[in-house]
Amino acid sequence: MNSRFIHLSGIVQGVGFRPFVSRLAAELHILGYVRNTPAGVEIVAQGEPATTDDFTRRLVKDAPANAHIAEISVMANTESTTYKAFEILASVADDKTRYKYTGAVFVPTDLAICKDCSAELADPKNRRHEYPFINCTNCGPRYTIIENLPYDRASTTMKVFEMCPECAEEYKNPATSRFHAQPNACADCGAHLYINTTNGRLQDIEAVKYIAGLIDSGEIVAVRGVGGYHLICDAYNDSAVLKLRQLKLRPTKPFAVMCDDLSMLNASSEVLAAVSSPQAPIVIFDWQNAPISQHINPTSSQVGVMGAYSPIHKLILKYTTHKCIVATSGNRHDEPICYEPNDAERRLAHFTPHFLHHNRDIKTRIDDSVARFTAGELRIIRRGRGYAPFPVSIAHKSKYNIIFGAGAHLKNTIAISKGKYAFVSQHIGNLDNADTDDFYMETYIQMTRLLNCTPELAVCDLNESYFSSKFCERHASPIMRVQHHHAHLFAAMAEHNITGDVLGVIFDGAGLGSDGAIWGGEFFALTDGQLKRDRHLEYVPQPAMNTAAIYPARMAQSYLMSAGVWEQDYWGAKMGLTAEIVQLNGALINNNKTVRTSSAGRLFESVGAMVLGINKNEYEGQAAVALEAIAGTDNNVYKYGLPSRELAITPIIRQVAEDIKSGVVANVISARFHNTIATMITDNVLDMAKTYNIKRVVLAGGAFQNCRLLEQTAKLLTARSIECIIPRLIPINDGGISLGQVFYANIAPSIAL
Fold this sequence. Notes:
Blueprint: E1 2-11, H1 17-28, E2 31-37, E3 40-47, H2 49-61, E4 68-76, E5 86-88, H3 115-122, H4 165-172, E6 193-197, E7 200-203, H5 204-216, E8 221-224, E9 229-234, H6 238-248, E10 256-259, H7 269-275, E11 282-286, E12 302-307, H8 311-319, E13 324-329, H9 341-347, E14 355-358, E15 370-374, E16 377-382, E17 391-393, E18 402-405, E19 415-418, E20 421-424, H10 434-450, E21 457-461, H11 467-475, E22 479-482, H12 484-495, E23 502-512, E24 518-527, E25 530-537, E26 540-542, H13 547-550, H14 552-563, H15 568-575, H16 579-590, E27 595-597, H17 600-612, H18 622-629, E28 646-647, H19 650-662, H20 666-692, E29 696-700, H21 707-719, E30 723-725, H22 737-747
Parallel strand pairs: 2-5, 8-14, 10-12, 11-15, 18-21, 21-22, 23-29, 25-28, 29-30
Antiparallel strand pairs: 1-3, 1-4, 2-3, 6-7, 6-14, 8-9, 9-13, 10-13, 11-12, 15-16, 17-20, 18-19, 19-20, 23-24, 24-25, 26-27
């Protein structure tokens, strides 16, 4: 009889791993036990040597689809106990385990409703027919309901619901899909939906039908889902969509929609696969001839679509006339998503009096993830449900084992590295108000609790005025500061497990540079352990500090003045600049009362303002997004300078201005501008590649969310045998900064920075 001790770490809790081990042991006549530990899953396996070998191999080979085994350790079991069966034992704390494990348990992410549960939900003969909280070991809430690890029902918000005899029997029966499914419940013993109406309270399916009727009648409703509230209306109803736009103070920023019948999407197979995946992100794609309201995205045919990933949403769509709804985050402008009933009714009363609540508590609020296919890959734009807080495996060379990355000021996430794993949080948002700052603290507390750690080092931005930097100063010691665009570079390196020589092109909005200027169009070389800012876009004055990011026309005035082609009457009228603003900008620029910036984000926004006459960004980068959206098929390139330390932009601005005044159509100008920047990047990367003998380059930063720019640049570089390293699972924008910070700190001992 062979007896071995096995430990696995990774996503091995909350995905049906123990039931899988139990069934595999029964199949192979293995004796022993399996149980959760704070570091993963512990197994004792006794059987014939060949059988235990097969058992160990199949633990990895046949693991549940949603599991992720990061590490497995196998050792001889020297205890004298002879087991008579194979059991699932109660979870244990660290001090109760036989060995001290170095691995980490990964917090399981929330999973979309699976096909089996969807079928049961729709089956009138099934006892969970139309039960809004149906789930099994393969689907349902995880991260949002976990209070602590190991992952057991008593450590989740489901602990208040005692399973009825039928659910308890399923939970204990290895033959069922709900064997040790921690959120398991039914209408007799689980959570309930409810809505308070003038005629009293309605529950579950009656509440769903009532909400569906309100949606059909053109009303806006608030619905509590997996990670918080959605504001929902009929995606076909122009009046309802326009009303939501008015109330959200969102004239043009696209809304996301949700549908259950994916055949209506007119989308590629890769888009359909992403929408229907267990992660179920919002996927942005070009939905040509979409039957929904044109006001969903008034500026283009790009629409963000998600599937009905929870039973609540599936039931709502079942009872609405149109099978597509707007489902946007339930929050006020720049505030975090609402997730508690009383708070939602207070904050969202401006939008609607209709609230569909439920009584399954949400421990951790989380927004929907957003992704799009760019340069041949699905790339995450906003990291949320389904992806957070899944870690990145990184090189660990620091003397500190637990490192906290405080993240950026905008699109904030936080990260905690624990040894060789870096856990990146869900999207927190822009740290401009007290409510989001509270959410930041809430997320920090929850992540340190789940990871059972206290950071030994905190890493933040050079900009000491950021909330995230101040948070580190108040709550952590020691502190390391990392330049914003260095963090972008290191985030991409971390995801792709790169520690050696690499070039970097970081095109971004803004980050304080080591010289006091605002950087954002940067070319780096990491070679022989040295990180160098090799070149950058031309510095131009940025008037009115951060206001320039809100009013791109003001920044455009600075570019035009620097290029020597500013004409107040023409450009003031075209971009909606008043005489007072023009005079103020001019005085600031002429009297050197500005900061200098090399920002690619400000450049693209300024050209957008020039071409399209946009004075103010409704949302971050709107003028740049609008410029990309109109880009045509013209292949011409504006003249630009040779590779150099400071890349001249003003000659390009002069040619754009000349085309505009000459009446060249906007989509041609946009195409030429994108062509020019992509070609200029390529020429400079090739020049650096020759200098440093490096044939790979990181492309990162918020400006590379521009698909046209990213795809053209990657295509040109790849054709010249340059390998392009582009973030995929971590946002290319500031949502990746926290990962870059912790990775920088992890490998800093080996790099002269």
